[in-house]
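[stage:ingest] chain + small molecule (magnesium ion)
[stage:ingest] validated
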Amino acid sequence: MTERLLEVKDLRIEIDTRRGPATIVDGINLHVDAGETLGIVGESGCGKSLTMLSLLRLLPNKIRVAGGSAAFQGSDLLKLSPRELRETRGGKIGFVFQDPMTSLNPVMRIGDQLSEPLIHHRGMSKADARKRAGELLRLVGIPGAEARLDAYPHELSGGMRQRVMIGIGLACEPDLLIADEPTTALDVTIQAQIVDLVKDLRKRLGMSVVWITHDLALIAGLADRICVLYAGTVVEDAPAEQLFAGPAHPYTRGLLASIPRMGGAETERLASIGGTPPEPGRRPPGCPFAPRCALAEDICRQVVPKLASMQGGSAAHRVACHVTSRALEAA
Ligand SMILES: Nc1ncnc2c1ncn2[C@@H]1O[C@H](COP(=O)(O)OP(=O)(O)O)[C@@H](O)[C@H]1O
Ligand SMILES: [Mg+2]
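[stage:predict] done
[stage:export] tokens:
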């Protein structure tokens, strides 16, 4: 049996606005099994980062968890004591943030930034941590690793900085690595190298990975399973090959149709879907995608569809859509 590592249930996140609290994340359900790589995909602004930040209680000001749970190795991440939280962050769960220029400390040498979690979480001596920091740089493919320990972030290229970030995320050999658009700022060749690196490390270290991206094409060869987010809800959740072979949600179909050609310009805009997602506090009553959906019917504008396995389809393929789940039942 596969072991469940993380199970997020009915996660709700709110933001304070002048008009009162508004929902940003509206009942997210997702899970990650041991050794599995989960891709989380969706347009910019759909709540990918906040969902993951909330699990480590790193939400920005005025944004808070309003409900739900996140079971991880027998405890609820949302209820950890400050001490347990410190042990989990960077220890059991490694995090690679979106932008290495803002998450690496510009005035601290690379070696010290890599050593910090080792001293803090593993109780290593400074000398041992430095030795391990050199090994980590080699692990993430930095040439002349040991010589780079004394470099400052600005002395490295963007790709190298992102590798350092991954090294920090991996320092304590976490059970789960959360990577939030770790390659967005990089050119296509370097992106592919980083994806290959994480694939290789995942196998070698046996960890689970959550890889957040707006780019379905990028994680095609990396994710075992993919969750598609729209306006703070999961609209489809399926093994990767099933999602690519038979996307069920109209939004997922639109995302797939808008994958740019190989070597084409990167775009976050959806060529095939007009309109924009609802703003926080202005969610429509039924399916959040209904206003943009060519298949929407009356029920879609009234009742929020539940994420459920498709009748006659694979149990692992779940979709939240009144129309496509019914079409499959009839088929
Ligand atoms: N610091 C912030 N202040 C105000 N609103 C925010 C902030 N961060 C995120 N949001 C709101 O939350 C939504 C989801 O944000 P986020 O999780 O960062 O999206 P994603 O990572 O999918 O691009 C955004 O559309 C935005 O409206
Ligand atoms: Mg984000």
